[in-house]
Amino acid sequence: MSLPENVYTFPFDAQFGERTMTLHPSAIETENGLLLLDTGLPHKVENVIGQMDDAGYGLDDIGMVLLTHQDGDHAGGLATILDRANPTVLAHEIAAPVIDGREQPRAGPDGERYPPARVDVELGGEPTINTRVGPAKIIETPGHTPCHVSVYLPDEKLLLAGDALGLYGDTLDAPEPEVTMDTEQALESVGKLADLDIDHILCYHGGYTDEGTERLEEILASH
Fold first, then answer.
1. How many domains does one find in the chain?
2. What does the alpha-carbon distance between residue 118 and residue 79 come to, in Å, rounded to a whole number?
């Protein structure tokens, strides 16, 4: 199994202390351009743009940007994209004030905040976006941050997990406790996802796995 047609990932390597991790911004085709999920770090956004170009897309092809949460490795590249294109930006209503500069984010790897950038739509609840692979359901999955969201494509049984889950080596698991603001809430979110019919998952940290609902149930049992 692999990512379905019309769903893309644009991975890049980033250093977190002594660890090198591969991060995975992704995109889904819609009738109104790409829906880009997360933008990467400020100094890595050119990697994302280059891979979009390799896939046949330019910045002007981005119709919407959805930020899964406000951490700099997800939202840091937004200002660069908005300097060169004009997509509609969506983020949870709790994340928006951090992204646009009204509030400060938690410290990133270099201790500096990323450039603030506008948010056009502040999300509450769990809306659905129409795409070329069927409905994309925005699922509230707090824990890693209080306002984290993931995206579920029921027609493909695919979860774009953001940081609600991580792929550590070959092991799919809950987000690491040291970077999770509320570990109990994060496990509750895993339980919420385990109620969905999932065959494969793309994690922002670690990438793609063909594990799904059964593995999520194992995670819950092990914790």
1. 1
2. 8
86: containing domain: 7-222
Is-above-0.85 flag for pTM?
yes
Q: Which CATH number does the domain housing residue 127 bear?
A: 3.60.15.10
Q: Tell me if 2 is assigned to some domain.
A: no
| HSE toward the beta carbon, residue 118, CA cutoff 13 A | 11
Inside any domain, residue 186: yes
Summarize pLDDT for 68-89 with one digit per residue, the tens: 999 999 999 999 999 999 999 9
